[in-house]
Specification:
mainly beta, 7-stranded mixed β-sheet, 3-stranded antiparallel β-sheet, 12 strands, globular
């Protein structure tokens, strides 16, 4: 059973001073077949992986060519996204996932459940998040 672990990252919190968050380093494949590294929050509550608009530009995607949809975050605020199928690498595992790219920049990089949980079980431990290949 293959496991890929990511230690939690210590970040500033307005509530707790500091908090350890499940930050996962993944790679996204551009249209030029180059790998682009991003830090995402492993978010068990996110239905789909989400990135800001600028990431779609880096990947060579035409934002509005994707399937238009909306997502709702904490507080009920809706964000328009465009869903594209992209290739990601987690550890040395490459997979195709659907990801939403927002029309704006002020969205966090979230690694959601759709198409990720098909390939991995994810375990949130005290000090790390562990991806277990199915």
């Amino acid at each position: 059973m293959k496991k890929i672990s990511f230690p939690y990252k210590k970040e500033v919190s307005t509530i707790f001073g500091y908090i350890h968050r499940p930050v996962v380093e993944i790679y996204l494949k551009t249209k030029e077949n180059q790998w682009f590294r991003v830090s995402t929050y492993a978010d068990s509550g996110a239905d789909i992986t989400i990135f800001p608009k600028s990431v779609s530009n880096i990947l060579g995607l035409k934002l509005q060519d994707g399937q238009e949809s909306t997502v709702t975050g904490v507080g009920g605020q809706e964000v328009k996204i465009f869903i594209h199928t992209i290739t990601v690498r987690i550890g040395d595992e490459e997979l195709e996932i659907r990801a939403g790219f927002a029309e704006r920049e002020d969205v966090p990089y979230l690694l959601g459940r759709t198409d990720i949980l098909t390939h991995f079980n994810i375990l949130f431990k005290k000090d790390k998040v562990v991806f277990i290949k199915k």
